[in-house]
Amino acid sequence: RAVTKHQFVVMCLDRETGKEIWRKTMIEAEPHEAGHGTNTFASASAVVDGQRIYANFGSRGFYCLDMQGEVLWEKDLGFMQTRNGFGEGSSPSVYGDTVIIPWDHEGDSVMLALDAKTGEEKWRVDRQERTTWSTPLITPFGDKVQVVTNGSRVRSYDLETGKLIWECGGQVGNPIPSPVRYGDHVVCMTGYQGYAIVSMALDSQGDITESDKVAWTGGGAAPYVPSPALY
């Protein structure tokens, strides 16, 4: 696609009528990558915690707004270099006073935890990952809150410290579907150039690849892009 200047906008609509209540242009910029034909430059979903709105435009910045559309703080995390120039798409996750930003790409991949009120960095961890498009699952278990991330390896981090709790191999390329929790397990899947579905115990420690902490594995029907729904 031809790369032209774009406006990166957050909009608020009335849920009953669809009428626009407000819109705010965060930045006007020319993207450094053309992106995939089925992707957009605003693929990450906005997240709301009832007090603030968190909008991730990736290489175009991360923004926190109040419910009236006023910018409270913003972060410039630099440019992503995505696999084959496919573009960006991981959404942030919020839990309590912490916002998690996944930043997996062809450069130095990291995951960041920011203070939801101020945007100050709480911690960051390096990740040995190529580009992923998955959104982290934040879920309490026992005396910790875990941040579970899908990737070439599934990894779980302590929300408070960023310390790695457990990890598991077995996924295939281009991780996009987000993790889902079922009881005391979490299920992750990938579906590009192969298929993998893996159910892993949340009480795990260390590397659990092919251990009894893997409840079951499946394949043959794993999605490439859509996240699973659990009922």
Give a written overview of the molecule.
- The protein is built from no helices and 19 strands.
- Helix content is 0%, strand content 44%.
- The relative contact order is 0.11.
- A hairpin with a 4-residue loop joins strand 12 (144-149) and strand 13.
- The strands form five sheets. The protein has a five-stranded mixed beta sheet with strand order 11-12-13-14-18, with no helix packed on it. The protein has a four-stranded antiparallel beta sheet with strand order 3-4-5-6, with no helix packed on it.
- With 231 residues, the protein is an all-beta fold.
Task: Give the structure's gist in a few sentences.
0% of the residues lie in helices and 44% in strands. It has 231 residues and is mainly beta. The termini are far apart.
Helical content class:
under 10%
Strand proportion, as a percent range, falls in 35-45%
Distance between the termini: 39 Å
Shape: globular
- Summarize the main sheet: 5 strands, mixed
- Side-by-side strand order of the widest sheet: 11-12-13-14-18
- What's the quaternary structure here? single chain
| CA gyration radius, whole angstroms | 18 Å
Element-by-element helix/strand order:
EEEEEEEEEEEEEEEEEEE
Could you name the ranges where pLDDT drops below 50 across 5 or more consecutive residues?
Answer: none
